[in-house]
Amino acid sequence: MSDDLLQVELVAADRLVWSGEAKMVIARTTEGDVGVLPNHAPMLSLMVDGVVDVQTPEGETWVAAVDAGFLSVANNRISILSEHAEMSHEIDLEKARAELERARSAGEYDSEAEAEDAVRRAEARIRAAEKAS
């Protein structure tokens, strides 16, 4: 791997979601959106539910919806670790919209915090699917 590329691994609890080389990665952390280019300083950040963009050397952009997790950057390697992660092309947009409506309706979750988490996850899935289309 050359010094002008990043080696990226997007990992969910149950599987490797995406792995490959990238020119840039954009992810949402607790401090806001962060863009990582080759030779970025080492960092470890907490991610929030959101969208991750991976821009490949071929000019493609891979988009994924992720739950909260960790983003680690060191030596041109990026590890994105999340409980759940899903590539945009795997997301059924209509099903995600239905899940958002269910999450917004009262009574399905034990607590308001669970309902808010479900809304954030559904919104991230919808953003990822719409961004990729």
| Unreliable segments of 5+ consecutive residues | none
**Percentage of residues in strands:** 35-45%
The total tally of domains equals: 2
Helical percentage: 10-25%
Structural class: alpha+beta
Instruction: Report strand order across the widest sheet.
Output: 2-1-9-8-5
Residue-averaged pLDDT, rounded? 92
According to DSSP, the number of beta strands is 10
CATH third-level topology of the largest domain:
ATP Synthase, domain 1
| Shape call | globular
Order of helices and strands: EEEEEEEEEEHH
Question: What composes the largest sheet?
Answer: 5 strands, mixed
Architecture per CATH nomenclature, i.e. the level-2 architecture of the largest domain: Sandwich
Terminal Cα separation, in Å? 30 Å
CATH level-1 class of the largest domain: Mainly Beta
Instruction: Give the C-alpha Rg.
Output: 15 Å
State the CATH superfamily name of the largest domain. F0F1 ATP synthase delta/epsilon subunit, N-terminal
The number of helical elements comes to 2
Description:
- With 133 residues, the protein is α+β, with helices and mostly antiparallel strands.
- It folds into two domains: 6-87, ATP Synthase, domain 1 (Sandwich); 90-132.
- Helix content is 25%, strand content 44%.
- It is built from two helices and ten strands; from the N terminus they run E-E-E-E-E-E-E-E-E-E-H-H.
- The strands form two sheets. A five-stranded mixed beta sheet has the order 2-1-9-8-5, with no helix packed on it.
- Helix 1 (93-104) runs antiparallel to helix 2.
- It is globular, with a radius of gyration of 15 Å.
